[in-house]
Amino acid sequence: MSDPTGDEPGFALPLLLFAGFRTLIDRLHAELAAQGHPDLRPAHGFALQAIGRAGATASELGRRLGVSKQAAGKTADRLEALGYVERVDDSHDARRKVVRLTPRGVDALVRSAQIFEELRAEWAAALGAQRLRDMEAGLRAMTPGNFFRLDAPGWFTG
Amino acid sequence: MSDPTGDEPGFALPLLLFAGFRTLIDRLHAELAAQGHPDLRPAHGFALQAIGRAGATASELGRRLGVSKQAAGKTADRLEALGYVERVDDSHDARRKVVRLTPRGVDALVRSAQIFEELRAEWAAALGAQRLRDMEAGLRAMTPGNFFRLDAPGWFTG
DNA sequence: TAGAATCGTCAATGTGGTTGTCGAAAAGGT
DNA sequence: ACCTTTTCGACAACCACATTGACGATTCTA
Fold it and tell me: B82 with B48: CB under 8 angstroms?
């Protein structure tokens, strides 16, 4: 209004991006809670995604999440206590213990994917499909390409 | 709906938003570190912003950040140890101890604002000023209005 | 086969968050 | 003025999530 260009101040951009992220994640977990997964936290969702249907060892999980193997092991402990993963001995390597999704873990993953599709459809309906694609394309252009490294936790506090 | 248009999968949207946020914050702190503030972490930046030039009590800071007054007090302790804030007694209210920015704290805030402007200018140059404004407008439309509540930490883990 | 790398775990520590409690000080109602 | 309620800052205990360093056991490799 008073700004002749109408530009947002610079500090608003990261805040808006975070607000968008947070809004989506909050809605995801509200839905997951309503669908039988009330104990799942955002950090757990990232870990489940990183484990994947093929499973992973604690060390591998740590590499995928960008954290130490010890931290990954503790996260696996918590997910195990919540019933989302189980540990199985590897018959080919006595050192390895594979963290594998339980049926409950798979269910959470399937539902998450479904909910994300619905949320994206909401955004597409509100903004227009093309505007949403533009936004995604713009973000993809401004972020490091192989940014499917899910390492949110711990990064904030250092 | 199928996607003959090559739409992004739904789960990519939050990841892209987070990647954008993280990219900006990482660049901010790389710059801050180069400009004499290597110990400042993302969480600290949020707290400094919430304290502001007018200062705030621990309780008020807690309300602004959406955390308990105890947590806010600990964060103030940490910032005090790093030399970014100081505590002064309130002459009108013997209970209150106002957390106020030191010159170093003000310097960090000023530099942060400057860096954010530069980063936004980079995005505007790469995407086009209008596309960036569209992105910001879209995000503003999809996020709760008064989202200047800086409560990132703790939210993730619950 | 000896040496190096990897796996999972234990231990100690740092940071940031949460309740609950408490005394001191301010504010409010009668 | 007095008593009650609220607010403030602090302390204590605890939890979540990360770190580094060390360790025995196992596997890979030169």
Answer: no
Strand C: list positions under 7 Å from protein Cβ.
6-12, 15-20, 23-27
Asked whether residue B154, judged by its CB, lies under 7 Å from any atom of the DNA or RNA strand C, the reply is yes
Q: What is the pLDDT of residue A56?
A: 95
Largest CA distance in chain B: 68
CB B57 within 8 A of CB B46: no
Top-tier CATH class for A39-142: mainly alpha
What residue segments make up the domains of chain B, in order of their start?
A: 24-142
Q: B156 pLDDT band (50/70/90 cuts)? A: confident
Q: B32 and B64 in contact (C-beta within 8 Å)?
A: no
- In the chain, the amino acid numbered B3 is D
Domain spanning B24-142 has what CATH number? Answer: 1.10.10.10
- The reported pLDDT for the residue numbered A144 is 83
Question: Quick one: pLDDT band at residue A7, thresholds 50, 70, 90?
Answer: confident
Report the distance separating Cα A142 and Cα B8, nearest Å. 16
Q: Among partner residues B24, B139, B156, which is closest to A20 by beta-carbon distance?
A: B139
Q: In what order do the strands lie in the sheet with A97-101?
A: A56-57, A97-101, A85-89
How far apart are alpha carbons B148 and A129 in whole angstroms?
Answer: 27
